[in-house]
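Example S7 (structure tokens).
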């Protein structure tokens, strides 16, 4: 049995909480367990033990009495386990528009509480500065990262676009309001589901009728040919 003060932590905690996980971590791998100071680390097969510095830490209790670290604290533990981009992806996923697991101030307080020389603290601060609440998918975050990493301004996330009468006509994934450029990420459902396809078509027509340019990107543009999407957006902003 695990010690009574044991908590699930790291990627295991995020997976148990239902967070979208970044590339580079395997939720089906070893379980990460954290114990208090002075406790022996679990040495069973399939477990990775971690020892915390303080006896008690805030935690969440899930059904069946499963105890997990707070999501923002589990996110800190990814600092050296994933790339800088995927650390931002994980932060955005915790603050997603629907069913967020924490707020921006929760992440900010967690980072601020780290000592100056803590491992990965600089990377965490940079990731926090690049993260945005209210996203809808990890691929949208990766697309935004590709744009800003190439030197383009950071687009707004899920900002409402209204017509002259104040009617909401669209909520693009990413947008540059002053330049009237919308950037959308289209997953497979946008192609295979007719209702989604029709909704996208109507939204695009509404935006274009207001003088907006709409740039649609797929997984291939985000993951394999990021320069292509960057070039499209750069040209649109120079228009």
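Recovered sequence:
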């Amino acid at each position: 049995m695990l010690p009574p003060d044991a908590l699930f932590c790291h990627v295991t905690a995020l997976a148990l909480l239902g967070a979208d996980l970044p590339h580079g971590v395997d939720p089906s791998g070893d379980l990460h367990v954290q114990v208090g100071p002075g406790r022996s680390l679990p040495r069973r097969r399939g477990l990775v033990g971690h020892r915390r510095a303080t006896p008690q830490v805030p935690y969440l209790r899930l059904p069946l009495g499963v105890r997990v670290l707070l999501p923002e604290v589990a996110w800190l533990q990814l600092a050296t386990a994933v790339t800088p981009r995927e650390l931002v992806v994980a932060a955005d996923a915790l603050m997603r528009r629907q069913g967020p697991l924490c707020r921006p101030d929760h992440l900010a307080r967690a980072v601020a509480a780290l000592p100056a020389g803590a491992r990965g603290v600089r990377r965490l601060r940079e990731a926090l500065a690049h993260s945005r609440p209210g996203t809808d998918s990890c691929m949208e975050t990766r697309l935004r990262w590709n744009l800003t990493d190439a030197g383009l301004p950071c687009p707004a996330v899920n900002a409402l676009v209204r017509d002259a009468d104040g009617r909401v006509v669209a909520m693009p994934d990413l947008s540059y309001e002053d330049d009237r450029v919308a950037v959308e990420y289209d997953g497979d459902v946008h192609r295979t589901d007719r209702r989604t396809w029709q909704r996208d078509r109507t939204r695009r027509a509404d935006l274009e009728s207001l003088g907006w340019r709409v740039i649609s990107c797929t997984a291939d543009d985000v993951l394999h040919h990021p320069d292509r999407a960057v070039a499209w957006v750069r040209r649109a902003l120079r228009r």
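Notes on this example. The longest helix spans residues 194-209.
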